[in-house]
Amino acid sequence: MVKGTDGTRRNAATGEPYLPRHEPRYREIASFLRAPLADSLEALDIALVGIPFDGGVSNRPGTRHGPREIRNQSSMMRSAHHVTGLDPFAQARIADIGDVRFSSIYDLERVSDDIAAYYAAIRNAGVIPLSAGGDHSITFPILRGLAADGPVGLIQIDAHTDTWDEFQGSKFHHGGPFRLACEQGLIDPKRTVQIGIRGAQNTTQGWDYSHDTGMRVMFMEEVDALGIDAVIAEARRVVGDGPVYLSFDIDSIDPAFAPGTGTPEVGGLTSLQALQLVRGFRGLPLIGADVVEVSPPFDPSGITALMGATLMYELLCLMAEGVDNTRT
């Protein structure tokens, strides 16, 4: 794959060239956004990755099925953005590189190490990853692999701060990835903003940790009072101009729009607000992003996975726009 390649394939029987993204949406292999499939990081700008893991959930499993169903629903996406006019596939070299493989799916520490090593290889290849989970525990090892040069900024769009401590004897769970990331110097808490937080808790431990370390916590009531434009401005102020990672938990969206998730909380973002929020981060130097906690078993309609796929497209547009077009 070289710069400008648009993902054209050839019919195996006739040799006729065709573009999968322009085929009827019920046809072709369901790669992320119908991007080309790749078994190498060579000559890529952006890698689309699946992490089918939900061993870190505290209650309702099912997000292991998220990447496959997001891939399926992403066949509904088209190339050109109706607001910005950007076609990410014309802007950058993009491919679906498949799923992270695990040496032992039942060993949480080895899962973390497998993910970290996978993303370190992506980083070393100079490629930006866009990932679909999986539960939110996966973001900690992703950051282990990407933040080798020091702590990065974080935009976390979520119903929960995910800064809780040990749960049932383990720190590797979906309620604690950003506490771990902070403790290990992977994120700068002063350059971290958590947007859309809500829902009652049995302990204030997570909220307290976020506040005490200097993270900017924006509860949903503040988001609603300020409006999306002001929230975007505040988030950009917090993360500044340095490298930043964006993590989008689908439970930040109200379950009226995205019911298929492990820990739903009513009173969240609308689907339109979520899209507007992501679009507001154009121009930030993203080192990677993820969409997590899509749990297809809790939403047979597929609308949650469609939301996840749409968010991946929006994030892909942000990343593609930032790719250095002078690369060859």
UniProtKB/TrEMBL annotation:
One of its GO terms (biological process) is putrescine biosynthetic process from arginine, via agmatine. It comes from Vreelandella subterranea. Belongs to the arginase family. Agmatinase subfamily. Its cofactor is Mn(2+). Residues 1-20 are annotated as: Disordered. This is Guanidinopropionase. One of its GO terms (molecular function) is metal ion binding. The lineage of its organism: Bacteria, Pseudomonadati, Pseudomonadota, Gammaproteobacteria, Oceanospirillales. InterPro entries: Agmatinase-rel, Ureohydrolase, Ureohydrolase_dom_sf, Ureohydrolase_Mn_BS. PANTHER family: ARGINASE/AGMATINASE, GUANIDINO ACID HYDROLASE, MITOCHONDRIAL. The keyword Repressor does not apply. Binds 2 manganese ions per subunit. Keywords: Hydrolase, Manganese, Metal-binding. Mn(2+) binds at residues 136, 158, 160, 162, 249, 251.
